[in-house]
Amino acid sequence: MMNDATALQGGSGDTVDVKISELTHSDSARWDQFVHGHPDATFFHQAGWRNVIEKSFGHRCYFLKLERGGQICGVLPLVHVRSLLFGNLLSSTPFCVYGGVLASDEQARRELTEHACLLARKLGVDYLELRNRTRQNPEWPSKDLYVTFRKPIDADNEKNLLAIPRKQRAMVRKGIQKNLTGLLDTGVERLYAIYSESLRNLGTPVFSKQYLRNLMDEFGSSCEIRLVLSQDVAVAGVLNFFFRDEVLPYYGGSIAAARSVAANDFMYWDVMSAASARGLKLFDFGRSKRETGSFDFKKNWGFEPQQLCYEYFLVKTRTLPDLSPKNPKYEVMINVWRRLPVAMANILGPSIAKNLG
């Protein structure tokens, strides 16, 4: 375990012990208590991600906490991912759209950041990546590739429907007219079949089915699967995260039969409706790359893009990583993957996807 202890002089002249150490199982409740009480916290700062990532992908996690006088004043979840194809990196946090330092004050933020830089050097990674929602280290190089889409939702569902721009609202109404139904599912089988086919069509390797099970097991009622049925056949589905008063539709997709009945559009409306009925206040549409179909789709719902500030501390590389599907380095692989049978893609995909992050 990493452990770094210092002492600061308090205002009364007393010495205050400052310690940076790794999260242990016995500290998980205190960690999450700090996260849930912090205004800038996200679902992805929670301690459970360490268990999920280690069980699902085997990556070494360094979930760092800073304590003063025994009280947690900052946390930083980090994961070490090593891949011949995608590089050697330390990230907060892979497989998550948000991350970075969560601290009660600037000094704690700075100390955790410096500790992470030291760890990155010690591990000999190419770079350290912090997936911040806002700029925290203006002197570091940053990428403007990703944006997020977040918007309040109303307790009056009719107001939510009318807030959707006219053309997109027509697609939602089409799904309603086609008698689509949304329902909860307690298992991952049907969602995984839909999601894996959807990713194959995009040329993207899929995670293992066990990863979805691990998410459901770890986060319990804060993790939920909703399916869309057309004539009793599941044609679309999404795994949603819940954090405080927010809903985050996260892993979702649809099959070919969904297009003619606007099931993908209906699916997100169904999630929004259920969240409104549950008393939630914010719909987080997640991140998208600029100039992609996903980006356009979310804008069509009336969501305004908000820049994500992914910041990089370069260690062994001097250029920013480019894992975008538009990178010519991956173009051939993507085109080949789209032609694979779904069953074969599902066998080969997890060994690649575990390093995509």
Record the SSE blueprint.
Layout (H helix, E strand, L loop, with lengths): L2 E7 L5 E8 L5 H10 L10 H10 L2 E9 L2 E13 L3 E6 L9 E2 L2 H18 L3 E6 L9 E2 L2 E7 L4 H6 L3 H12 L3 E5 L3 H14 L6 H11 L3 E8 L2 E11 L2 E9 L8 H15 L4 E8 L3 H8 L4 E3 L1 E6 L13 H11 L3 H12 L4
Parallel strand pairs: 5-7, 13-14
Antiparallel strand pairs: 1-2, 2-3, 3-4, 4-5, 4-6, 7-16, 8-16, 9-14, 9-15, 10-11, 11-12, 12-13
Helix pairs in contact: 2-7, 5-8
In short:
The chain has eleven helices and 16 strands.
Describe the structure.
By secondary structure, the protein is an alpha+beta fold. The chain is 36% helix and 31% strand. It has eleven helices and 16 strands. It has helices at 28-37, 48-57, 106-123, 157-162, 166-177, 189-202, 209-219, 263-277, 293-300, 328-338, 342-353; strands spanning 3-9, 15-22, 60-68, 71-83, 87-92, 102-103, 127-132, 142-143, 146-152, 181-185, 223-230, 233-243, 246-254, 282-289, 305-307, 309-314. The strands form two sheets. Strands 1, 2, 3, 4, 5, 6, 7, 8 and 16 form a nine-stranded mixed beta sheet that branches. Helix 2 runs antiparallel to helix 7 (209-219) and helix 5 (166-177) packs across helix 8 (263-277). The protein starts with a strand and ends with a helix.
